[in-house]
Each structure stands twice: as C-alpha cells, then as structure tokens.
Amino acid sequence: MTTATQPATTQVYRIYIKATPEAIWDAITKPEWTARYGYTGLASYDLRPGGAYTVAPTPEFRAAAEAQGFPCPDIIVDGEVIEAEPPKRLVTTFRMLMDPAMAEEGFTRITHEINPAPDGKSCSLTVTHELEGAPLLASMVHGDQEASGAGGGHAWVLSDLKSLLETGSPLAG
C-alpha cells in the first residue's frame, strides 16, 4: 500500500509530448536543454555502458538553493549509464547529492523510454524510477516535498519538459 508518507518504491510516470523522439532525447541528455526546465541542472552523459552521468547546478539553481539555506555541491546528482539506445531508451543509476541523508541512501535506477505515437507527430515518454531502499528520495521525486520548496518531483519536471518542447517556454516562463 502506498501512502503520502511512504511513496511506492517503483514510480512510473508517462507523458505525451508533441515532439520527435530526437527532440525529447536531446531535451533529456543535453545540458543546453536540461538547464531550461525542471530543476534547471546541467546534465552530462557519457552515453555508453559504464559512462558517467552527472548534473551540475546552474548559477540560478545554486543561488536559489543557498538562499533557502541549502549548501549546493558542484555536482548535485551522479550516476552511471547502464544502457543508452538513442533516441529510444536511457537507463542510468541516480544518486541525489544535495542532501546528505539522500546521498547516503545510495544509487537508484531511472529509465527513460521514448515511443513514437502512430500519428507520427507525438511520442510517449515513460520515466520509471526504481527507489528501493531510498525512502527520502522516493518522497522527493514523488512531489511530497513541494510545499517546502523542493519542487514537484518527476511529474513537475515532465510537465515542464512538455511545455518547453511544445511551446518553447517552460511552465514558469
């Protein structure tokens, strides 16, 4: 049973975006895109099995975190590429480094799957985050910490990504 205080250990989010698989792939994997939506981190992927995955804060992200009293490390997320099949599937490990307690939970696994719709004009993007042994991170990515300034988790990030790709502006823009 899942409650507000105990989110599922595997969370699945699906969104439909009027964009090509390549555009969605680029928005997930290229820092010039990841800096424009969601938490606005600068993602870096070495897109081969065993390659590094990191997210660095933008100056705006760092300033906002520090203004709220959270020290901001130079790398806020790290992990490893497990599988990369552009522009269809990306599997990585994921460890949140901003919060020491979340960092101690260790690595989780996140999968992005991009599937073109039959109409050829849109795609589904499914994000599956396996969070076994990471209850703090599970709560944050579920959006349970939104009221305390931690953002709305995966649902919020995906909504922002969709808005950016479809309109050229993120939700807040």
Structure description:
The chain has 173 residues and is α+β, with helices and mostly antiparallel strands. It has one domain: Alpha-D-Glucose-1,6-Bisphosphate, Chain A, domain 4 (2-Layer Sandwich). The protein has helices at residues 21-29, 31-34, 59-67, 100-104, 135-142, 153-167, and strands at residues 10-17, 41-45, 52-57, 77-85, 89-96, 108-116, 123-130. The longest helix is centred in the C-terminal third of the chain and has 15 residues, at 153-167. The radius of gyration is 15 Å and the shape is globular. The N and C termini lie far apart (37 Å). The mean pLDDT is 91.
SSE blueprint:
Blueprint: E1 10-17, H1 21-29, H2 31-34, E2 41-45, E3 52-57, H3 59-67, E4 77-85, E5 89-96, H4 100-104, E6 108-116, E7 123-130, H5 135-142, H6 153-167
Antiparallel strand pairs: 1-7, 2-3, 3-4, 4-5, 5-6, 6-7
Looking at this structure, what is the CATH superfamily? START domain
Per CATH, what is the topology? Alpha-D-Glucose-1,6-Bisphosphate, Chain A, domain 4
Sheet-strand content, in percent, reads 25-35%
Largest beta-sheet characterization:
7 strands, antiparallel
Mean pLDDT: 91
Main sheet strand line-up: 1-7-6-5-4-3-2
The helix/strand class is alpha+beta
CATH architecture: 2-Layer Sandwich
Number of helices: 6
Q: What's the shape?
A: globular
| Domain tally | 1
Indicate the percent of residues in helices: 25-40%
Question: CATH first level: which class?
Answer: Alpha Beta
Tell me the radius of gyration: 15 Å
Enumerate the spans where pLDDT stays under 50 for 5 or more consecutive residues. Answer: none
Through-space gap between termini: 37 Å
Helix and strand element order: EHHEEHEEHEEHH
Organism: Jiangella anatolica
Domain Activator of Hsp90 ATPase homologue 1/2-like C-terminal: 18-166
Pfam families: AHSA1
Family: Belongs to the AHA1 family.
